[in-house]
Write a structure and sequence with these properties.
Shape: elongated
Mean pLDDT: 82
């Protein structure tokens, strides 16, 4: 009798087909329209070799899709993590408190929480990418916090 199955444990690559620069993140807040806040991860990429598609960044219990950006011949991957929003249902306001009985407290909308198959410290992240169609993972160390921004 034999047991067969796939491992759900993700394997970290020791060497990637690109070079990572110093990774950073920045807290941000916007009061334009709805009040929203979050953080943006930014990682410089150099010496990119082969057919690579950047997918996801796992950071502090969250995940975000990666986007690429080129600034002055330097390539970056960016991950935008929005903080959960409070869902505010309609509230009945009335002079008679009995008419307000059906009011519900605001609910916290859970954002992009992720079940991480990796053990990470606060200054570490894991980036997933596709290399010739195969998903691979690389760990990033020493992520630096930059001063926050208010929009």
């Amino acid at each position: 009798m034999g047991l067969f199955g796939c491992s759900s444990q993700k394997k970290l690559e020791r060497k990637a087909p690109f070079t990572l620069g110093p990774a950073s993140y920045q807290e941000w807040t916007s009061s334009v329209g709805e009040d929203i806040s979050g953080r943006t991860g930014r990682i410089p990429i150099a010496h990119l070799k082969g057919n690579i598609l950047f997918k996801t960044l796992f950071f502090r219990g969250r995940s975000a899709e990666l986007q690429t950006e080129r600034v002055n011949d330097q390539m970056f991957v960016l991950a935008k993590f929005e903080d959960p929003k409070m869902l505010k249902p309609d509230i009945i306001m009335h002079a008679d408190p009995k008419r307000e009985v059906g009011n519900q407290p605001p609910l916290l909308k859970v954002g992009n929480r992720a079940e991480l198959p990796f053990e990470l410290e606060r200054d570490q992240a894991v980036m997933s990418y596709l290399e010739n169609g195969l998903e691979k993972f690389i760990k990033i160390y020493g992520i630096e916090e930059r001063p926050g921004q208010i929009y």
